[in-house]
Amino acid sequence: MARREPKTRNTRERLLSSALDAFSTKGYASTSIDDIAKAAGTTRGAFYYYFSDKADIARDLQQDLWRSIAERAQSVFDPSLDTLSNIKRAFATHLSEVNQLESVRLFLREGFLDPTLEASGRVELEWGFDLIREYLADAMDKGEIGRLEPTALAGILTGLFEVATDRALAAGDPVSITEVVNALLDGLVPSEQPANLAQLRRIR
Amino acid sequence: MARREPKTRNTRERLLSSALDAFSTKGYASTSIDDIAKAAGTTRGAFYYYFSDKADIARDLQQDLWRSIAERAQSVFDPSLDTLSNIKRAFATHLSEVNQLESVRLFLREGFLDPTLEASGRVELEWGFDLIREYLADAMDKGEIGRLEPTALAGILTGLFEVATDRALAAGDPVSITEVVNALLDGLVPSEQPANLAQLRRIR
Asked: How does DSSP classify residue B132?
């Protein structure tokens, strides 16, 4: 998130910024609404004007963070490359972005662990489902990946990325995890087979 | 779980059996301790003698269910087959077992969704972590699968199986999901390369 000078930001932005600082340093559970309001130089009343409770502001922050990570990951898509290469590039960027957000990594991970926050993290990961499903369906038509049930494949892949993100947030080293994900993705390359058999499978 | 005649079972077993029936038909959240005690022909006092609360008896049931599924999956391991084939067989058996437990499928899925139950499901899935990690390390040494960081690989694979189990419990059709998992696992087959390069990579 871009940081602006306090005086130029409105109360809602100051509350968001203070909450992110507090969640990242003290942790979500240990931060009170009073902590956030005080750090933002405002009141509990102002907090409740903008947010219904602590989970509400945390979900907004998580959504902003995941959205900016997703935008970076989507920005590396290159239409001149094949689908699997693009998925690998996007996912490696995603994990690397997650890892670079050192100061908010624990807070991001809390989005996986705290049941009241988990849903918002999942919502942001949904961008992956639609994007990947669309790319996968195209890639099957082009013969770049083998025929599989597209919804099952998209569901498993987004789940796999979620698991990998969780592991990277916990372990803090995205390289080994990216290598494992890339190897698994290579399994989607169609095995060589006679063209007419491939045709039959597609029709079935 | 094997059903015995009520008269030959002790109170704890009757409570477990009644709880499983109630959780499977009414759902975990809608079942009270009184419901369980009444159906077992006993009292709240007896319930609290054996279990600390509703989550406690549910965790015991989840553990029993996951353990019996895991035992069936492990039983199909065949030492004469390669590691990837064994993992595929075990996982296909696992998903098929999960799916066959029609009456308790919703309760099993609640083990993923309810935060107080989730941990016990995770514990049972841990059998997968140790088993798979050991098999994967062996398989890397034998050259059956490519070199990857074993802990990262085992972590991602157990997470992948957890995701696939969750999707199968939700969707109720394990076949497409098994096909997707098998395709991804095929990505672990080492790519063909000169023997001395493979050797170098192993040493590095």
From this structure: H
